[in-house]
């Protein structure tokens, strides 16, 4: 679990702001659900035989309430189950489909390594109540627009279809037979999953099993005409929009609730933590969580991985610095200085106040040193002489610094626009 501190936190804020703008452009609306949910929600929603539910959840028994009932609670390992719970609980689909998004911390007790943390952060988009491939396509276009807005390159799209439960059942029987006939080549995890969740065996990261899973029966070959039509519908949208993709028949995703479309945006530049964003359709989840049947599709991206990939690319992310730093030689001028700063801030200026040390305001020179270190483009000087004339001093901290000039306190609006228009990095 990480502390996210300046200047790194500025990259997070920039990413989050860019995401909000993109979500608004696609008319996805924000949802915030609690960190804690009943454990049973995740067991039912994510599936009993998944890494998350088997071994990664932070679960605990809450203190008993006055009826002696203790609740089993879990810190959310993902947000789709909680979002669907909220949609069901508040009957959000009563008047038709909804497009929603979330962002926030998730918790999984994984083995920590680069790109894999125990508290990590996801942004997710979910479209509920829409059955057609058009919305699957829209969600992929939304992710793609986001990559464009943050100038993320080096991700490629992998696509697959998991078909419908009946198709999966047919494939499952054949897959189990195949894996059993090669039982000697299965690792411990695969043997454990062989009967509970054989599809997940295909998702193994064990290099020794790659050739075995490559030869396994493909779920795609078991899809009926309707599933194939849906899959082709999604691909037609991607082609018409010039979005490159590859079909990966072994892409199954780690959570149990998916059907039909599944996809991942992956990169080769983050080692084995190469999945930046993953999602798919989960038409049966709403019923499993107790709602009326309704189709749904969504994705989630990992903020840490997106930022790591941007950094890997050497991307420059804008970091806000103050427009101005207020140099206040004499503490007596501080009340007037602060009143002026408030007015400038109300006009949109970012300005950092010089704070006194144990020995008072400090020398003019030391104040200017701090002004330089702040990254501000200008110093505002609240000297006693200037204030007595109804003025303040303005000095550039960039490009050879330049002379100090006087600006009338009566025209703060003019000063504000000068500070804002001349500042770099905006
Ligand atoms: P992985 O295969 O890498 O474990 P996953 O299939 O468990 O990923 P999802 O549950 O689909 O991942 O979560 C969506 C995204 O959240 C992932 O693609 C990844 O970017 C990010 N993510 C998942 N787990 C972690 C983690 N422990 N630390 C950081 N990011 C994570
Ligand atoms: Mg995982």
Account of the 3D structure:
It is built from 15 helices and 16 strands. The longest helix is centred in the first third of the chain and has 18 residues, at 8-25. The mean pLDDT is 94. Helix 1 (8-25) runs antiparallel to helix 5 and helix 5 runs parallel beside helix 9 (225-240). The two termini are 32 Å apart. It is 37% helix and 20% strand. The protein folds into 3 domains: 8-163 and 226-312, Bira Bifunctional Protein, Domain 2 (BirA Bifunctional Protein, domain 2, 2-Layer Sandwich); 167-222, no CATH class; 324-422, Rossmann fold, CATH 3.40.50.800. The protein has helices at 8-25, 39-46, 51-56, 80-89, 133-149, 165-181, 188-196, 210-214, 225-240, 285-288, 303-312, 334-346, 364-373, 384-388, 412-422, and strands spanning 29-30, 36-38, 59-61, 72-75, 98-107, 119-128, 156-161, 245-247, 259-266, 275-281, 296-302, 324-327, 351-353, 378-381, 391-396, 405-408. An 8-stranded mixed beta sheet has the order 1-5-6-11-10-9-7-8. Strands 13-12-14-15-16 form a 5-stranded mixed beta sheet, with helices on both faces. A 3-stranded antiparallel beta sheet has the order 2-4-3. The protein is an alpha+beta fold.
Count of discrete domains = 3
The gross shape turns out to be: elongated
CATH superfamily of the largest domain: Bira Bifunctional Protein, Domain 2
Helix content: 25-40%
CATH C-level class of the largest domain = Alpha Beta
Average residue pLDDT = 94
Might you state the CATH topology name of the largest domain? Answer: BirA Bifunctional Protein, domain 2
Which percent range describes the beta-strand content? 15-25%
Radius of gyration: 28 Å
